[in-house]
Design brief:
With about 230 residues, this protein is an alpha/beta fold. Helix content is about 35%, strand content about 25%.
């Protein structure tokens, strides 16, 4: 079966600095796959490469068997790939509801509507007329996730959704992520919290200095292996 997403030996640079070196991953239909690794390992660069924000200089990326390397972020959203970016990137000049509606600009049809997002995040309905950045960090993360869902993606990329949030809020966000997965959306997420990534994903890739240092099903990976792959020791 053709993977939903196939990344084949990609390389990525920032000027002379090589951020990714020969990265290959595959994400199957309905999977939740986690990318783990320390700061600077290349996790966000990989997500940006897939999302069309920072295209790779070498290698290939395929979505449902079709090449997408070099496609714009807008074109990828139209095809069914959405991203929840690190830092949330909420528009401060827009209300919560308008921030959500921005996600529907591609016009893709599907199960996710404003009402469905409000059902997932009731607090956002209560605060729909508030400014997008007048919310707590956790609520802003809900807006970012809801905005991505409004594009009705087949694959959703989530970059550091737990970063800077209180543990109870992180639990709430991941409960929603599990519900999204159960409704059929394939998920690729970046998570710096190793234990969380191992707990939530069906398959894990660990990055170290722009390379894959370990991969496998969480149940098959030993703690010592993960530590070596994460820290490079």
């Amino acid at each position: 079966m053709t993977p939903v997403l196939s990344v084949q030996s990609i390389e990525s640079y920032y000027g002379q600095f090589q951020a990714l070196s020969g990265i290959s991953i595959a994400v199957e239909e309905g999977q939740t796959v986690a990318i783990i690794g320390a700061n600077g390992a290349g996790k966000s660069t990989l997500m940006k490469a897939i999302a069309g924000v920072h295209p790779p200089t070498k290698g290939a990326i395929q979505f449902r068997g079709k090449p997408i390397s070099g496609s714009s972020a807008y074109a990828l959203v139209q095809q069914g790939i959405a991203m929840v970016p690190e830092g949330r990137r909420i528009f401060p000049s827009l209300t919560v509801e308008d921030n959500l509606l921005v996600g529907a600009y591609s016009g893709r049809k599907g199960q996710w509507t404003l009402d469905k997002v409000y059902e997932l995040f009731p607090i956002l309905k209560e605060r729909r007329k508030n400014g997008g950045t007048d919310l707590s960090g956790g609520q802003q993360q809900m807006v970012a996730v809801g905005r991505a869902l409004m594009s009705n993606p087949e694959l959703i990329l989530m970059d550091e959704v737990s970063l800077g949030l209180a543990p109870i809020v992180v639990n709430e966000i991941y409960e929603v992520i599990r519900r999204i997965a159960a409704l059929g959306t394939t998920i690729l997420l970046v998570e710096q919290d190793v234990s969380r990534g191992l707990r939530e994903a069906s398959y894990v890739y660990c990055l170290l200095e722009g390379r894959i240092s370990l991969e496998g099903k969480p149940s098959d990976l030993k703690k010592e292996e993960i530590s070596r792959a994460y820290f490079g020791i």
